[in-house]
Design a protein that fits this description.
single chain; mainly alpha; MetI-like fold; Amino acid ABC transporter permease
Length: about 250
C-alpha cells in the first residue's frame, strides 16, 4: 500500500512551531523539577522531622498518582481555590512537580553516595556547611546521578505530549488538529513520532557533550616509585657472568 507523505508535509511550519513549543515547555518544567528535586532531597536528608515528613509525603503522593490527573488538578481544580492558570502554566507546573518527586529520590541517592570522609575533611578545613555542600558534596552528587537526571529530562519531553489534554498546542496536540483536517493518520502521527525521536536524541547528545565538559574525569596521579620492588628486583636478578677472552 502506497502512502503519500507530500500532502502531510505541507504543514511542516506547524510541526516545527509545535516541536519548539514542546521543547521550550519541557525545559521550563525541567528547571522547576530540578529546583524541587534538590530542595526535596535536602529536606529528606534533614535532621528535622518537620522537613522530612512533608518531603516524604510529596514524593509518595506524586509518584503514586498519574501525571495526567495532576495536570487536571492544576488546570481545573486550582481555579476553584483562587489560583487560575493558563493551560501552558498548568502543564509546566504539573510536569515540574511530577518529575521533581523523582529527582528528589535521585538527588538523595547521589548525596548519600558521596563518602562521609570528604565532609569531615571539609570540616577540618573550616568550611561552612553551605560551602561544603556547594563545593564538595553537590558537584560529586551531580556527577553520580547525571545520567539519571538526563533520563528524566527525556521523560519530560515525552510526557509533554499529555499537555494536549488541556488544550496546549504542543507537538501531539498540533498533530491531532492536522489529522482531524487531513485524515492522514499514518503520515501525520508518523511525522510527529520522527520529530520526537529527533528531539530526544538531540537532547541526549547535547547532554552528553555538556557532561563531558562539566564532569571531566579526575587526573590520575603519577605512579610513585616503589623502593621495595626495586630492591627485590636487584636481589632476584641473575648475576652476569664475565666474558672470557680467548688466549
Amino acid at each position: 500500500m502506497f502512502v503519500d507523505w507530500s500532502y502531510a508535509l505541507r504543514d511542516w511550519p506547524t510541526y516545527l512551531d509545535a516541536a519548539w513549543l514542546s521543547l521550550k515547555l519541557s525545559l521550563e518544567a525541567f528547571a522547576l523539577a530540578f529546583v524541587l528535586g534538590l530542595l526535596g532531597a535536602l529536606a529528606r536528608k534533614s535532621r528535622h522531622r518537620a522537613l522530612r515528613a512533608p518531603a516524604a509525603v510529596y514524593v509518595e503522593v506524586v509518584r503514586n498518582t498519574p501525571v495526567l490527573l495532576q495536570m487536571f488538578v492544576a488546570y481545573f481544580a486550582l481555579p476553584s481555590a483562587g489560583l487560575r492558570l493558563s493551560p501552558v502554566q498548568a502543564g509546566v507546573l504539573a510536569l515540574g512537580v511530577n518529575v521533581g518527586a523523582y529527582l528528589t529520590e535521585i538527588f538523595r541517592a547521589g548525596i548519600q553516595a558521596v563518602p562521609r570522609g570528604q565532609r569531615e575533611a571539609a570540616r577540618v578545613l573550616a568550611l561552612s556547611p553551605l560551602r561544603t555542600f556547594a563545593h564538595v558534596v553537590l558537584p560529586q552528587a551531580l556527577r553520580n546521578v547525571y545520567p539519571a537526571v538526563v533520563n528524566q529530562l527525556v521523560q519530560i519531553i515525552l510526557g509533554s505530549s499529555l499537555l494536549s489534554a488541556i488544550s496546549v498546542p504542543e507537538l501531539t496536540g498540533s498533530a491531532m488538529v492536522i489529522n482531524s483536517r487531513t485524515l492522514l493518520t499514518v503520515q501525520v502521527f508518523g511525522i510527529a513520532a520522527v520529530i520526537y525521536l529527533i528531539l530526544t536524541n538531540a537532547v541526549v547528545l547535547a547532554a552528553g557533550l555538556i557532561g563531558r565538559v562539566a564532569f571531566k574525569p579526575p587526573l590520575r596521579p603519577a605512579a610513585r616509585p616503589r623502593p621495595l620492588s626495586a630492591v627485590r628486583r636487584l636481589l632476584t636478578a641473575r648475576p652476569v657472568r664475565p666474558v672470557q677472552k680467548e688466549a
